[in-house]
Design goal:
single chain; mainly alpha; 5 helices; rod-shaped
Length: 104
């Protein structure tokens, strides 16, 4: 067991520290962390999709051809992903999707 160090009276009379620098309260301190402030809303955004590729093409004819190849279930899922409310009529839904494609 190590011995305790004996203190003398001279050690206990150390000069007090200077109070030249005032301490800043913790609430006023700012700290940078280097992270990008971004809140993901959908799972696609969590996985890295920023919404720029929701149509997968910039050509209207190619997009129309893709819509014609989709089943009604696929059309509903695609409309939800794009941000439209899916309707039962497939032709009307395709027209809405094409109009939405043109507007973006």
């Amino acid at each position: 067991m190590p011995r305790k160090k004996a203190t003398s009276k001279a050690d206990s009379k150390k000069p007090a520290r200077r109070a030249s620098a005032k301490k800043t309260p913790v609430k006023e301190l700012n700290q940078t962390h280097g992270k990008q402030e971004y809140k993901a809303i959908t799972l696609d955004q969590v996985w890295g999709d920023d919404g720029s590729s929701k149509y997968k093409t910039l050509d209207e004819e190619e997009y129309t051809q893709d819509l014609n190849e989709m089943s009604r279930t696929d059309l509903h899922a695609h409309a939800s992903k794009v941000g439209l409310i899916p309707v039962e009529n497939a032709d009307q839904l395709k027209k809405r999707l094409i109009n939405e494609f043109r507007s973006t």
